[in-house]
Write a structure and sequence with these properties.
Length: 44
């Protein structure tokens, strides 16, 4: 069984806008919101 990885996402807004980005070196990933993987022992 694979270990479970915890992920976090941030929906950052300002008035009627939301922060989005694209990966410069991986355009096939599309438009995304900031996100990442929590390391063991790391807190939100």
């Amino acid at each position: 069984m694979r270990p479970i990885k915890q992920k976090v996402f941030a929906y950052i807004t300002h008035q009627r806008r939301v922060l989005l980005f694209t990966h410069t070196f991986s355009p096939e990933a599309g438009i995304q919101v900031p996100a990442g993987t929590l390391e063991p022992g790391e807190r939100i």
